[in-house]
């Protein structure tokens, strides 16, 4: 009999179970990714504050963000501000550089972007803005094939068509 009143076999089985469940430092895998939205799905709803993305977005606009989504040049993204990481900002990713993503405001008169703080590291890019929900729904993240279709002949000749589907080209990182 074991000291707690069980059989020796039960005591051995329990001890083996405890040994097998112990996790040493070499067994620890990567930490789970923390989702800002806090839900089961990788989507979140954000509200814009400030004029940095005018004319594309205005203060009070509500956006749907997909956390962890792949970022392409031209995409509107949600990032942690590199100098104030408690602050979330929405910017346009223009190009990938050695230090991370070069982000610009759509409003050329607002310089609180990569022109001020340089390239933003990949780990501060939280997600991609998919569309604006309010005041009027607008898609901001078309699929790659749709972007190529809208920018190719003959659809590229239709004024404003690509922009209506969220394709914005011709941004210069040196603005």
Q: Could you explain how this protein is built, in words?
A:
The protein is an alpha+beta fold. It has a domain at 43-164: Umud Fragment, subunit A. 17% of the residues lie in helices and 25% in strands. It has four helices and seven strands, in the order αβββββαββαα. It has helices spanning 8-21, 114-117, 144-151, 161-164, and strands spanning 43-47, 62-67, 76-80, 88-97, 100-104, 125-134, 138-139. Strands 1, 2, 3, 4, 5, 6 and 7 form a seven-stranded antiparallel beta sheet that branches. The longest helix has 14 residues, at 8-21. Residues 14-37 and 171-175 have low confidence and may be disordered.
Please give a quick description of this structure.
This protein is an alpha+beta fold and 175 residues long.
Instruction: Return the string of H and E elements.
Output: HEEEEEHEEHH
Which residues form runs of ≥5 with pLDDT under 50? Answer: 14-37, 171-175
The N- and C-terminal alpha carbons lie at a distance of 81 Å
Overall 3D form: globular
CATH topology of the domain at 43-164: Umud Fragment, subunit A
Helix content: 10-25%
Query: How large is the share of residues in beta strands?
Result: 15-25%
Separate helix tally: 4
> Class of the domain at 43-164 in CATH?
Mainly Beta
Structural class: alpha+beta
The CATH superfamily of the domain at 43-164 turns out to be: Umud Fragment, subunit A
Count of distinct strands? 7
CATH architecture of the domain at 43-164: Ribbon
Major pleated sheet: 7 strands, antiparallel
Q: What is the mean predicted local confidence, pLDDT? A: 75
Radius of gyration: 24 Å
């Amino acid at each position: 009999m074991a000291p707690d009143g069980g059989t020796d076999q039960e005591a051995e089985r329990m001890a083996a179970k405890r040994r097998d469940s112990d996790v040493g430092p070499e067994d620890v895998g990567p930490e789970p990714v923390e989702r800002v939205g806090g839900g089961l799905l990788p989507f979140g709803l954000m509200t814009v504050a400030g004029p940095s993305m005018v004319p594309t977005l205005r203060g009070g606009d509500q956006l749907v963000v997909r956390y962890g989504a792949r970022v392409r040049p031209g995409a509107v993204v949600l990032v942690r501000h590199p100098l104030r990481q408690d602050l979330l900002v929405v910017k346009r990713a223009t190009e990938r550089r050695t230090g991370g993503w070069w982000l610009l405001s759509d409003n050329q008169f607002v310089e609180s972007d990569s022109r001020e703080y340089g390239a933003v590291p990949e780990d501060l890019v939280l997600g991609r803005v998919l569309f604006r929900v309010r005041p009027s729904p607008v898609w901001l993240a078309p699929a790659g094939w749709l972007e190529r279709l809208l920018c190719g002949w003959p659809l590229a000749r239709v004024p404003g068509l690509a922009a209506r589907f969220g394709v914005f080209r011709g941004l210069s990182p040196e603005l």
